[in-house]
Amino acid sequence: MANKYEPPTQSGLGQIFDSVFLLALVYIALFIPLVLGLTGAGGTDNMPEVVNWETLEQNPVMQAQWEKLGYTPETAAELITHRFDYTIDPFMLILTGVVILGYFIFMVKASDKEYRDVIREKFDS
Amino acid sequence: MTAQATNSDASQERVGLLRVLGPVHVWALGVGIVLVGEFMGWNFSVGKGGAFGALIACWVIGLLYTCVAMIDSEVTSTVAAAGGQYAQAKHIMGPLMAFNVGLYLVMAYTMLEAADALIVGDLLAILAGQSGYDALDPRPFVVLIIALLALLNYRGVFMTLSLNFVITAAAFVSILILFIGVKPWQPGAILQHQGLLTELPYGWIGVIASFQFGIWYYLGIEGTCQAAEEVRSPSRSLPLGTMTGIMTLLIAATLTWYVCSGLLPWQYLGQATVPLYDASRMTGSLMLQIFLFVGTMFAATASANGCINDASRAWFSMGRDRYMPQWFGAVHPVYRTPYRSILILIPIAVSFAFTGLLDQVITFSILSGLLGYTFMPINMILFRRKWPLGTIRRGYVHPFHPLPAIVLMALCVTTFFATYLGFGTQLLAMMIFYIVASLWFVLHRYKFVRRADQFTMNWPKPLGY
Questions:
Q1: To 10 degrees, what angle do helices B346-355 and B139-155 make?
Q2: Partner residue opposite A29 with nearest CB, options B355, B432, B446
Q3: Which domain holds residue B442?
Q4: Where do transmembrane segments lie in this chain (chain A) (predicted)?
């Protein structure tokens, strides 16, 4: 027969501390990297030496649509020539894979340990 | 009702949320959150893989959501407890997984809310620019829209989701009007697919990369489950509202891709903030432009409204279960809404909206959703293993198990890789957030959780325990 676990009562101060901790975690882990420009897509630009619709490889239909949007070859050039950089860094790829896999393994193992407490108390007490 | 009452033993009577919603509200909640994905965000998949890449992503990610719907239908119809995937995780995998699933929901919806508010501000700035005033600061409008919608949610769920129904329907109609307005029966008259569609600019790796934002076509439709506690007839309203919602989105996504790819060069489309509004400008019709301006505003407002509703319910559920400070588990004594959970998320949404970095705010939302989808196949396999068919009554049994779980896992892994292509640092930042939060839960928070209260279903003991 399993004993029923009686959790402690959390003080008001403790609840405030926990709330602040979670908010701080959001700002430190997610917001600060964003505003410091540490995240976001890396890219390359292949700007031609002479910028016009032909060197930007825009056919007459594309040219007409760009002009309707209010762009000239000069103002559209950066948008047209910018490309994502899909070069794969094997170390970063493996690191990312290990972090995600490790997270889920930890999640399943630690959850299962806690789940056994739940089942024991629910069915054996 | 006071916080003390809310925090009392589960055996004591608690004031619940009002059961006032029907299928129409469920449809409005699901589509209202997701429809904005047709007005902004999906087009970043064009930037990552070209117009055809985005179309392939739309179909492949549609398969991912089909697997999600199959798995979710079986588990949701069986775990008849409020909280959607959060309640499923509590009953099948354990508290830590449930805590994470709850957090996925909160973060996915709060970041989406931030993106919605950002769109409202940007659209007003664009309008001001077109009217000759280039210096409009969008930030006061961001604060205003979030504050107004939070107030609406604070006051009551029925009024909130009734408003959502009206503005979501109007936004959907604006897409239909634009589609008719561009005369799709006369190719070349307005739509210029022949001149604008190109080869795949990055080859097939770009197609895979575009899966990241392909998620945006559908992200959040599973949020209909969050309203389970406030729906009059969950067994009828939830499937009906969700299925009609998915059909609406499939139609809207197809029309959106077709119209935009026929009017905008892919390089522009791939980074546009409000692509459907831009498409309407290209028609030269002021009337269409007005319709799409209103449609975009309505879609963003409806989405933010639904997001506040869903994120606060998930946070509230965690507070009630003591996964979060139990102060958040309180229901308003008059309006019967989780008012404290509504208020705590406002600063996060405002802060991220203020960055103006739409693609990155969206990526945080997508990653939280994706982690939730990765949980589902693990959950499904454990569900069938712990309670094999015939041991408990299931509302629905999905066919071909474990094929949908395997396909879903494979597509999730591919979409993680897609995110790594271009947004790898952000992916790691998000993982660090969830890892630290999980350690906090295991090492500190779990001691406040009542063990047996986490399992409320009248099921036999799971096999192997």
A1: 160
A2: B432
A3: 3-10+23-452
A4: 20-41, 91-110
Question: Which of A38, A79, A95 is facing B268, going by the closest CB pair?
Answer: A79
Q: Please indicate, yes or no, if residue B458 is contained in any of the structural domains.
A: no
Distance of CA B453 to CAs A5, A36, A107, B106, B456, Å? 11, 43, 20, 22, 6
Instruction: Encode burial over B95-107: b for 16+ CB neighbours within 10 A, e otherwise.
Output: bbbbbbbbbbbbb
Largest Cα separation within chain B, whole Å, is 70
Note the pLDDT tens digit of each residue in B184-241.
999 999 999 999 999 999 999 999 999 999 999 888 877 666 666 667 766 667 667 7
Average pLDDT of chain B? Answer: 88
In a domain, B18, yes or no: no
* Residue B247's pLDDT band (cuts 50, 70, 90): confident
Q: Tell whether ipTM is more than 0.85.
A: yes
Position B1 scores a pLDDT of: 32
> Which tens digits make up the pLDDT trace of B332-376?
998 888 999 999 999 999 999 999 999 999 999 999 999 999 999
Q: Which of B209, B264, B364 lies closest to A84 in CB terms?
A: B209
Distance from CA of A52 to the nearest CA of B (A): 16
CATH number of the domain at B341, please.
1.20.1740.10
Collect all residues with Cβ–Cβ distance below 8 Å to B432 and sequence separation of at least 6.
Answer: A29
A78 contacts in B (CB within 8 Å)?
Answer: none
Nearest Cα residue to B348 out of B138, B112, B172, B126: B112
Domain assignment present for B462: no
CA–CA gap between residue B173 and residue B6 (Å, rounded): 42
